[in-house]
Amino acid sequence: MSLTGRYVAVIGPADTARPSDLARATELGRLLAEAGAVVLTGGHHGVMRAAAAGVDSADGVSIGLLPGLARDEGAPEHTYLLPTGLGELRNGLLVRAADAVVAVGCSWGTLSEIALARRTGVPLVLIDPWDLPEDVGVVVASAGEAVDAVVSQLG
Amino acid sequence: MSLTGRYVAVIGPADTARPSDLARATELGRLLAEAGAVVLTGGHHGVMRAAAAGVDSADGVSIGLLPGLARDEGAPEHTYLLPTGLGELRNGLLVRAADAVVAVGCSWGTLSEIALARRTGVPLVLIDPWDLPEDVGVVVASAGEAVDAVVSQLG
Amino acid sequence: MSLTGRYVAVIGPADTARPSDLARATELGRLLAEAGAVVLTGGHHGVMRAAAAGVDSADGVSIGLLPGLARDEGAPEHTYLLPTGLGELRNGLLVRAADAVVAVGCSWGTLSEIALARRTGVPLVLIDPWDLPEDVGVVVASAGEAVDAVVSQLG
Amino acid sequence: MSLTGRYVAVIGPADTARPSDLARATELGRLLAEAGAVVLTGGHHGVMRAAAAGVDSADGVSIGLLPGLARDEGAPEHTYLLPTGLGELRNGLLVRAADAVVAVGCSWGTLSEIALARRTGVPLVLIDPWDLPEDVGVVVASAGEAVDAVVSQLG
Question: Least CA distance to A87: which residue of chain C?
Answer without folding.
Answer: C85
